[in-house]
Amino acid sequence: MITGSLGHPGEDGGLAARFALEVRPLLASLMRQSRRLTKSHADAEDLLQDALLHAYKGFHTFTEGTNLSAWLFRILHNRWASAYRRSLSRPTELADELMAGWGADRSVAVASAESEALSKLTDSVLKEAFSSLPQGIQEVLYYANMYGYTYAETAAIMNIPHGTVMSRAARGRQKLRELMKSREDQGA
Fold first, then answer.
1. What are the pLDDT digits (tens) for 43-98?
2. Could you give phi then psi for residue 169, rounded to 5 degrees?
3. pTM, two decimal places
4. Rounded Cα distance, 146 and 133, in Å
5. Taking phi first (over 0 means left), then psi (-120 to 50 degrees means alpha), and beta for anything else, what does residue 65 get?
6. 30 near 24, Cβ under 8 Å?
């Protein structure tokens, strides 16, 4: 990660060497924290590279003898938070396979994605149980379980806190199990 010449023309080469020497022992722990934040190895590598570049650019302002680890972790977290806020301001991205079939011949009155997903379910009992859930729980289960989005992605899509998504998903799955069990008992 920190290889080659880090110095810019006209900069002190000793600063680049000091940066590389002092940061190298912290790379593993920075990478672990980056993976915790991003939940993806590739995104974690990108975040770490961005944070290290930002730290290097500002290394001349770092006071020698203070806590370099805390300084780097703060930069890492701030870079992640900035990227996350930027992602929230972008329009929702849809996969190509979701957009397939949305050609010009498609009518203007399109059924909701939830309705289309439910229509693909063959078990009418499951459909009935799912439709009896509160709307917020239905949406969380739809995104997290039917489309496989992570809880963080679901939270971003629905613009609600991550913990709310986790809570609704757990309650929704539990309620579905209870409804399916009670309907199964009634039918037997």
1. 899 999 999 999 999 998 988 888 999 999 999 999 998 888 887 777 666 655 55
2. -65, -45
3. 0.45
4. 15
5. left
6. no
